[in-house]
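Task 17 of the worksheet. Students: predict the tertiary structure of the chain below and write it out as structure tokens. Keep your answer in the requested format; marks are given for formatting as well as content.
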Amino acid sequence: MVPADLDEVMAIERTSFRHPWSSNFFLEELQVACARSILAQVNDKIVGYVLFWLLPEEIDIHNIAVHTGFRRQRIGQTLLQQVIEQARSRNSARVTLEVRVSNIAAQKLYNSVGFVGQGLRRGYYSDDGEDAVMMVLELVPR
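Model answer:
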């Protein structure tokens, strides 16, 4: 993801989350040295994205979304699999993320690729104080 992608990314972000990230937040995220992103495209149109950090022992997913018109086509699952492959290629021990307790659809997606709940972060979301489920995918070395 580069700044020129932000208009398409923001359109997806705004329709995916009731408290979307701002474009400035995305720009800040892109400047973090350990931050990485993957875009999903169909006919040169961005239809999904994932942003994550490469940490010493793990990868931490910060944001993932798929355009509403392209959901239920395994795009989110494919983005997650690509992150998992990067983690494996780096010999990371795990992939982690937080998800709103109310976002059952996302939790099901994460479960489908092997993530499991590892606890609750009370009041995690600063915009409304909602709790987050901490989810982890432990990786077995190949």
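Marker's comment: The CA atoms of residues 17 and 65 lie 9 Å apart. The chain has a mean pLDDT of 94.
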